Amino acid sequence: MANNKESFGSKFGIIAAAAGSAIGLGNIYRFPCEAGANGGGAFFIVYLGIVLLMGLPLMVSEFVIGRRSGKNPVGAFKTLAPESKGWTSIGYMGVVCAFLILAFYCTVAGWTIDAVGKSIINYYHGLDKVTIQNDFNNLMNESWQPILSEGIFIFLTAFIIVRGVTKGIEKFSKILMPILLGILIILGVKSLTLPGAADGIEFFLKPDFSKITGKVLINALGQAFFSLSLGMGCLITYGSYIAKKDNLTSTAFAVCISDTLIAVLAGIVIFPAAFSFGIKPEAGNELAFVTLPMLFDQMAGGYFFCLIFFLLLTIAALTSSISLLEVPVLYLTEQLKISRKKATVYSAIGAFILCVISSESLHDGSPLRIFGLSVFDSLDAFTSTFLMTIGGLLTVVFLGWKMKKSDFMDEYTNGGTVSMGLRRIMYFIIKFLAPVAITVILITQFIK
Ligand code: PFF
Asked: Atom 12 (ligand 1): residue with closest C-alpha?
């Protein structure tokens, strides 16, 4: 199918941009929270299995759909299945999901910006755990400060989006992610040498199979989809920018490996340090935002590392949030023919309003709750364990059962020009294994 829109400039550019979307707060903030709350090693092993058996094939599927159609998620399903309108609901779900994720994502990004500010003035230096914990809780209860940092974050996201795809996204992703990786390795070494670190490593890496429950499975599935930016059309959108000559499997593989590597490193940094400082693995938000400043304070050059780390984390969050905002923006420009600038402004304002509601819901005693959870936690749970998993399921079902196998193979092998040794296994997973596994996990969870 014709695809004459802007493409990513190089193979490395796509990997950098898709990895930029994948690597973000999900790896460094959310992954440790989920692993900590779901039994550590048991969660970790399930997570790895899901990334390999479902994450990678689903990512390939999204790339195939995006590149084949050359469109945003709504337009993609309209183009590939023009006679059956139902499939476009996957695309609409993705657009809604992007907004909902942005709302709580920007809240956490706001905390990261706050940490950058505190790092600049060397605020954390010499503070004890209780003071950092209290400060963090106070931040959530503040009225204006979080709104200001969220506003700055959304403004930056919108600014990059208006500049367009190749110029904006590629440039920011290419250089900075490898530096983030380097800092995480240095931090990991430091964390592992703290007293009591071994307990943290044991918690994180030693699986206790008796702890694998339906809840662990669904949370690991949700985390994998969240971390890899799957199940909501984001990578369909990016797929639409991939050049026809690029190899989709090796691209998806590189993205999955780098994303998982960063998450694992985050676990290796956070759990030993948390155990050493007496922070519980179930501590949630505090795991990253209290443990890390304490760790930096123990290091030679801690001021410098702390500042660079939180700056890079903010940038990693930005390369993810631009991929989120790109979903509604591309929908509005392609389907509703609104200019890119206007589409960005409308979407950013909508996301900002939701974000303010999400962060206000974290105030002590806030009435902004849904089924007993704060709006922030509800949005997080609803998107990752429901919208993204259902979106992922419908995507593989579409590819395996609705799209012609020959069309899939044609796109997947770049019109037969690259030989994909694993194409039959990949197709089998997409058609049978992934849909069955996701359905079983969803059913076990919802029956409960
Ligand atoms: N994958 C991002 C992260 O781990 O921080 C979050 C995200 C980005 C989720 C884009 C979904 C998405 F479409």
From this structure: 229
Q: Considering only CA atoms, which of 57, 50, 53 is closest in space to residue 34?
A: 50
Q: Which residues contact 53 (CB under 8 A, 6 or more apart)?
A: 429, 433, 434, 437
Q: Which of 62, 97, 101 to mutate to test the pocket of ligand 1 (most atoms within 8 A of CB)?
A: 101
Q: Kindly give the distance from the C-alpha atom of residue 105 to the centroid of ligand 1, in angstroms, as a whole number.
A: 9
Ligand 1 pocket check for 387: Cβ under 6 Å:
no
For 383-400, what is each residue's pLDDT tens digit?
998 999 999 999 999 999
Name the amino acid, one letter, at 330: L
pLDDT digits (tens, 9 = 90+) for 337-353: 999 999 999 999 999 99
Distance CA 282, CA 71 (A): 41
Burial class (CB in 10 A: 0-12, 13-18, 19+), 410: middle
Give the Cα separation of 43 and 29 in Å (integer): 16
Tokens 């909501």 identify what position?
A: 232
Q: Is 240 in the pocket of ligand 1 (CB under 6 A)?
A: no
Reading the block at residue 224, the tokens are 């994998």
Tell me the CA–centroid distance for residue 391 and ligand 1, in Å. 14
- Four-point Cα dihedral 37, 41, 45, 48, nearest 10: 60
Cα–Cα distance for residue pair 62/260, rounded to 1 Å:
19
CA distance linking residue 264 with residue 260, whole number of Å? 6
79 in Cβ contact with 239 (< 8 Å): no
C-alpha torsion sign, points 253, 288, 196, 217: negative
**What average pLDDT score do residues 120-128 get?**
95
- The pTM for the full model equals 0.94
As a whole number of angstroms, the distance between CA 222 and CA 38 comes to 12
Residue 226 CA, ligand 1 centroid: distance in Å: 5
> What is the dihedral sign for C-alpha 385, 74, 436, 25?
negative
